[in-house]
Amino acid sequence: MTKTFSVRTRSRTTFVDITAEVRSIVADLGVEDGAIVVYCPHTTAAITINESADPDVVRDVIGKLSELVPESPAFFHAEGNSDAHIKSSLIGCSETVLVRDGDLVLGTWQGIFFCEFDGPRSRQVVVGAL
Ligand code: ZN
Fold first, then answer.
1. How many domains does the chain have?
2. Residues with Cβ within 5 Å of ion ligand 1?
3. For residue 103, what are the β-bridge partners?
4. 13-18 average pLDDT score
């Protein structure tokens, strides 16, 4: 029981708030109580849960990740996007979210983000009920 939707990213590194799409898929899937997985089938992107109220939080996360893993010609991978692969592994390609009474169990300030590290591109997000 899965559903897939597309995310169009508009810059090389950006986080897209996908909470509304995920919430609507939970309703489509008819999940009332349990859990879902939000999964990204890409090697240079990721899924995370973090603050969605203040966009400066995402700016700070992106800024610190870029500082920790800068683009560099020194990596072995010939495609030139090893920094994006490393950031993808640091953040991880999925999140598990509990569902209660048909809605996501998220804190007041939490949102679900698609993390793009090698855009702009059209990407896929898969949501599956557990
Ligand atoms: Zn690559």
1. 1
2. 79, 81
3. 100
4. 98
